[in-house]
Each structure stands twice: as structure tokens, then as C-alpha cells.
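[User] At your convenience, examine this fold.
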Amino acid sequence: MKLAIGYSTKDEIELTKQTYPRLGRVPGASIFWCDGSTTAEGQRLPLAFGLMPPARILGGADAALAWKLSALLNAKIDSGGYTHIALIENDVLFDDDWFEPTMALFEKGAQDGLDVGAVSPRSYVDRVLIQRSGYAVMHNLGAGAVVFTREAAEIVLRTFRTNWWPDNVRLFARLSGIDLRTYAAFRGNEQWVTTDWGWEAQLARHGLAALALTPAKCQMIGQKIPLEQQGLQLTNETHGTLGIDERAFKFYRDNLERLRSGRVKLDDPGTIVRQNGAMLFFPHQIPYLAGSKWSGISELRWSQGFGPFAYRAGAGGASLSVPVSGICAFLVSGGRDGARVVIQDTRSGFKSEPDLPNEDSGIITVNVPGTPVPRRVTLDMAEGAVFYGLHCNDAQMLDTHFAFDWATLPEAT
């Protein structure tokens, strides 16, 4: 095993002083430190541990996650790559004996007939899908403490986006026979959820399981809002011994095996949001539309609950040209101060030039009529305007050569 750990910080110096030393006890691991600190003290902290300055990644937590996945997958060691990729955040304080039991979950799951793609020492009660003896199959691990196989990390990076919670509910219901609406955090809500709420669903689509220790072998520290007020509870001895459901486990295990073997196939591959035949492309996914092109200066904006990235037009504005078939809609806002956009259909001559209000008014949808005949549609944004996505009523042809990577994002400011 060759393990790389992506550790991320942003100031919160006292938390880092507590949590980083625990990582140094992991045998043979390479640590990649990603820092978004804005204070001089935070930026100097790695030097106190005798380290070189870490990678400075701005643009929010999701930019840091994308960087960690990309950097660790691209890193070379002994003429090859790392076999396992861990993502750790500085508010997770591990127990002294967390590492070996966590990594043993890969083998424990295999003995139970699972192909395990991700493991964690952290388990929240409402994130458990199926309880086992000493561990749980999870429908969510979160980004704060997770170890992926290389295959799983590649899947997570390739499908990196926010998620529609009802899609998770439907997927796990089909595969396990369990209705997350009866107990999980979002219950029966219809809402967007953050990027790391979709990782286990994406892995399940490829027949891979996500496991966590029960009871959890970590603590959450420095929480601005206590866990109880967030509706979160780490598993303890009681939760680790009750609720074992052999029938649900066998159903889930067998369905994952059928997906891995190709005997069954899901109708939704999961990369692009699909709803009733329509497709929603977030800004970082636009290159999936072959022949799309950005010009001008764009800046990365964090849009945690929807995207998770948005692109803001910089000085001089920015333009996007995309090939589209059928009716489509651009999702935009006027940014902080309001701004104009111009949307044109080069085939029909359709043109819309709305003056967008500031972002307090939320995301504005600008509809573009069209026929099934493909044509090129352009979006010109004045400085400050923000692009959140492109909704297409019909399925589009995708460029299968495109693979999302942190390096494909515009620079954050």
C-alpha cells in the first residue's frame, strides 16, 4: 500500500496544532498540505513543524478538495502512483489507535463480500446505511476524514459536483431497500446537497461500498456550532451494536456485485445531473460539451450548495460559446453590483440582453428557444456577472475525453 494524505487548513491554528501531529504517526504516508489561510500566522504555521510552505489554494473548501484529489492522483512515487488517497481536515482529531482499524475495513469488507472503495474512522448516526459488527456500510462519510482506493478517488474526482438529494434517496432505495427519508439528515426534502454528499452514491453506481468504524475513532473539535445543534451525533458503543440488518446487507451487497460485473446497469451514470431527460451542466462541466470555448477572464467563485463552482467575469468581461441541441437556459446572476449579459443563438438570431440585478436576487434563468438541430449559443458577460450553469431540455452529446481536474478551474481571487 502507498498512501498519500491530503491535509487541508485555513487558519484555525489551535486546531491544526492538535490534529496535524496525529497524521505524522501514520506509517509510510506522504502528506500533502493544502492551505487557504488568510493570516500571516496561519500561513507560517507549517514552518513550525519543519515543513516547506504548503500549496496555497484559494476559492473555498471545494477547490481545496479538488486540488487534493488531483494532486495526489497525479503524484508519482516509485515510478508509479499512490494506491490509496486520504482526505483529512484539521477539525478531526483522531484517537491514538485510529489508523490500523480504519485500514482494516478494506479487508473486513472484502471478507463480507464487498468491494470497498472508501473507509473512515468517523461515523455519524444518521449517515449509517446498514450496521454491521464493528463497522457500518455508509451512505455518507463526508470529506473531513476519508481514505479512498485509487479507483474510488478517480471516480469521485471525475464526478465532482453538488447533488440533488432525491437522487441519493432513489439510488440507495433501489440498491438496499432502505428509505433514507425516514431518518437521514435531509429526510424527505427536495434540495441540493454539497459535493461530499454524493461521493458514496457515485461509488455505489460503480459497485463500490463505503465503510466506517462504529464506534467512531475520532472527535470533532473547534465546531462553531456544536454537533448536537447541527443534528449530528458520532456513533458510540450503543450505536455500534444495535440495528444489524442481514437481509438489507445481503440485498445491497448482491446489487453492488451485479453492478461491478455488468449484469445490471443503472440508467443514470451520475456524472451530469439528469432529470426527465434534461441535463444540467455546472460551469466546471461545460467542457463535456465538445467544442465549447471560454474567452476573456473568468474568476472562480465558491458556490457550495450549487455547483460547487461558479465563474465570475473579470476585468473586460468574459464570453462562453457552446454547441446546444434543443431548448436551453443559462443560469446567471449580476454578481455583487449587478451586470449585463448578452445571450445569442447564432442560428435563429435570438438575442436577449438582460440587465441582471445584484446577487441578492438569486440566480436568474434566461431561456433560449431552439429546435433539435444543433447550433451555437453564446453568452457574453460584463465584468462582475456570474455564470452558474447551463440547463438543456434534451440530452446532449458529451466529449468522453474530458476529465475534470483542479487544473481545469479558473484562478480564484
About this structure: The radius of gyration is 22 Å. The first strand starts at residue 3 and ends at 9. The chain has a mean pLDDT of 95.
